[in-house]
Design a protein that fits this description.
Residues 8-44 form the Helicase HerA central domain. It catalyses: ATP + H2O = ADP + phosphate + H(+); Couples ATP hydrolysis with the unwinding of duplex DNA by translocating in the 3'-5' direction. Belongs to the HerA family. One of its GO terms (molecular function) is 5'-3' DNA helicase activity. There is one protein chain. By secondary structure, the chain is an alpha/beta fold. It has one domain: Rossmann fold (3-Layer(aba) Sandwich). The chain has helices at residues 22-35, 72-78, 92-109, 132-140, 160-163, 177-186, 190-195, and strands at residues 12-15, 40-43, 59-64, 81-86, 113-117, 146-152, 168-172, 202-206, 211-216. Helix 3 packs parallel to helix 4. The longest helix is centred in the middle third of the chain and has 18 residues, at 92-109. The chain is globular. It starts with 11 loop residues before the first strand and ends in a 13-residue tail after the last strand. The structure holds adenosine-5'-triphosphate. The site of adenosine-5'-triphosphate has 14 residues, from helix 1. Adenosine-5'-triphosphate binds next to helix 1.
Length: 229
Amino acid sequence: MTEPTLNLTKHMGIFGFTGSGKSMKAGWMFEQLRKQKRPFILFDTKVKNHVGLCQMKGVTLLQIAPGKTYNWKNALKASKYIVATPVKETKRSDLIAQYEKFAEVVFQTETARTLGIEEAHLWNPSGNVANEILENIIREGRAYNQNLICIDQRIQSFPKDLWSQCATSVICKMGIPQDIEYLTRLIPDFAEQNLALPQYGALIYDHTTGQITGTLHPDQIHRITKHYG
Ligand SMILES: Nc1ncnc2c1ncn2[C@@H]1O[C@H](COP(=O)(O)OP(=O)(O)OP(=O)(O)O)[C@@H](O)[C@H]1O
């Protein structure tokens, strides 16, 4: 089976309930970004989830410890490919506060980069209100060749201001009736297409045409590094 092509340098959302394979797919995409020599920062919220990506040459691990001050500009200069993770002691609120500062520096320095946002709901104040820095990047980052890949559990509570700017959504096989009903309003035959997916499969939704343009089969996710999720 050939690898599907997805434009990873445009804004994207990856949605699915816990265990549906979001992080596995996200890691696979960041492996491809590394192959393409596209600079990235993957902001993870778990200690180990994506650390396997650091098996690739030039990918560095940036661990966010509680109470520590970071020089984000230096971090950007030191590595083109960064996986940021908390340590066990880092509180989620402190982690996101540090990540916001880092993302702000990326935005201000106008450097071309893909930013991966794991558990985007932790960044957003609510399902209706987007995180300010994410909104700035999603609206204006294109001018600097910056893009977001946001990973989130509930498509319904992903802020519309962010979702409307995405070029593609990768919609993992859904199991929650409310999500299926919600998506059926947008894609009339969503329920049938969703049902036909194997476990860990996903539908690719193109925001410009408003249509499902393909599927991601689990066998197409060829990871070259270890996934710990
Ligand atoms: N394409 C795949 N092929 C085979 N197994 C898979 C695939 N995708 C996911 N899995 C299995 O499912 C597990 C959970 O996947 P993953 O960590 O990506 O889920 P997730 O949706 O990110 O979950 P969470 O929201 O809890 O982080 C993986 O550790 C792996 O065992």
